[in-house]
Design a protein that fits this description.
The chain has 375 residues and is of the alpha/beta class. The protein is built from 13 helices and 12 strands. It has a 7-stranded mixed beta sheet with strand order 2-8-7-6-5-3-4, with helices on both faces. Strands 9-10-12 form a 3-stranded antiparallel beta sheet. It has a two-stranded parallel sheet with strand order 1-11. The protein is globular and about 70 Å long.
Amino acid sequence: MIYLDNAATTKPDAECLKKAKKYLYEDFYNPSSVYKEGYDLKLDLLAAKEEIISHIANPRDFDLIVTSCGTEADNHALFCGAKRGNVVTTMGEHSAVYNAAKELSQRGTDVRYAKLTKDGSVDVDDLLSLVDEKTSLVSCIHVNNETGAVNDVNAIASAVKKKAPGALFHSDGVQAFGKVPFRIGKDVDMYSVSAHKIGGMKGCGALFKKKKISIKPYIFGGGQEGGMRSGTENVFGIKMMQYAAAKRFAHLEENYERATHMRELLLKTLDGKLFKIISSYKASPYIVCVSATGVRGETIVHETGDKGLLIGSGSACSSNEKKRYSRVILACGIAEADADGILRISFSPDTTENETKECAKILNETVKNRKEIMG
């Protein structure tokens, strides 16, 4: 089986799993307990969170609110960061931000959506035109989860703060964390990440929050996470995220170069007569978006799955919305005929050349045969 849907989820890292296993069977205590074992575990988690922060920010400047996933982190930022006036986001957001923004709109908030360029990155001029003195929150995705387009969120955040100094700036960094070289700039207030996108476990994500900003809790209860997100801590998940992040960041540059090589190999091997390339060469090399015009992407995914190749036809989360065309792809200005055939191939550091070549071979054969059947 060839698995190239790593933007949806990654295989848990076996080395990290082995290290974290003791937090299931030995150090299983509740960190909020007052006895020594619980207190020691609390200190362990505090150190783990500081280490995670240190990969892209200074722990002196940021807190880490551990959540159940990237979606919860995004929701926390939007529902607790939007305090007044209007909210500005983009048409290229993950559904966790986009649908949260729609809910804010239904509750009476003025929500404004910036346009996209053809590769899925935000039209920065359009976004800034929507920001004014009443803007309370701007949310702009770092790496688009469907096309891989990279937004310069540090530069965008700085431009936003010049127009609206009181606005908070949030970015969904789920497809960027541990994959693209980056450190949080001085004008980014909140940043969402997810463990299972980098070899950690599902059920654990986090929101980087600048210490000097004030937002309300999202989940109330026993006051965990500094009162910002109550609920007994997922110690195993947090440790897995710590270990997985450490491993990814230790090899960040070489993994990036490897992913770039795999992308180039894939695009060189795919039949240019059968596929249109949607992702730009400035996109994250971990995500390649193509279109098999005239053939439904969903059909291709089912057929390639039968042949031992697992890929995506867009965002895995958005597949539950049962919409034929991706709103993100359409927002790029792509015609419905091309949007119908969208495929997303996404790499991990473990992806091999043979897997990439076989992926292209299977896709070429599948699409060619399907078009011949369709006449």
